[in-house]
Design brief:
By secondary structure, this protein is of the alpha+beta class. The protein has a single domain, classed as Mog1/PsbP, alpha/beta/alpha sandwich (Protein Transport Mog1p, Chain A, 3-Layer(aba) Sandwich). It is 17% helix and 49% strand. It has 2 helices and 10 strands. The strands form 2 sheets. The protein has a 7-stranded antiparallel β-sheet, sandwiched between helices. A hairpin with a 4-residue loop joins strand 7 and strand 8. The radius of gyration is 16 Å and the shape is globular. It starts with 9 loop residues before the first strand and ends in a 5-residue tail after the last strand.
Length: 166
């Protein structure tokens, strides 16, 4: 099978973070209803343009955590929020969790989750982080046979938190 390869990835830069996509993502601001109330969410989405691409979609979601102060959340509050975010994702995708592990990025805690959906045909790789009062969700969708490809790791490794005092 031939795979489509990107010569140079697109670097997305915001005030608070940066990340690289295979090509320029579509940026949207949405209002979403959650168990914690209505929230404003910024999303970045790149969907595969070529059937030979290794991954179906790259996605980033950023939002303020409802009812959170500007200071760091306690470990229990972080766990509760990440549990809710992951459970919501499982429910919305009608997915099954394959693995769920704690991770850190610099000093910020998060979770790395792998799920399967569509009768185990699609694998969803997620990394979720909490930085002060913000949630960052990074997701890559791939077919089962393309899981663990190098572009998934490249996407996750490109994510950097900037000076969050802004």
């Amino acid at each position: 099978m031939n795979f489509y390869s990107f010569a140079e990835w697109y670097s997305y830069n915001s005030v608070n973070f940066k990340i690289s996509f295979p090509q320029k993502p579509i940026e949207e601001n949405k209002t979403m209803q959650t168990l914690g109330g209505e929230i404003e969410v910024k999303t970045l989405t790149y969907k595969a343009q070529n059937p030979a691409e290794k991954n179906l979609k790259f996605y980033v979601s950023v939002n303020e955590i409802p009812n959170a102060s500007k200071e760091n959340l306690t470990n229990d509050e972080q766990k509760t929020f990440l549990d809710a975010a992951i459970n919501g994702s499982v429910r919305n995708h009608k997915a099954t969790i394959i693995s769920d592990n704690p991770i850190t990025l610099n000093k910020y805690s998060g979770r790395e989750v792998k799920m399967s959906m569509n009768d185990n045909k699609i694998i969803v790789n997620m990394k979720n982080y909490i930085v002060k009062n913000k949630y960052y969700g990074l997701i890559v969708y791939s077919t089962k046979q393309n899981d663990n490809n190098s572009e998934i790791n490249q996407f996750f490794k490109s994510f950097e938190i900037k000076d969050i005092s802004k």
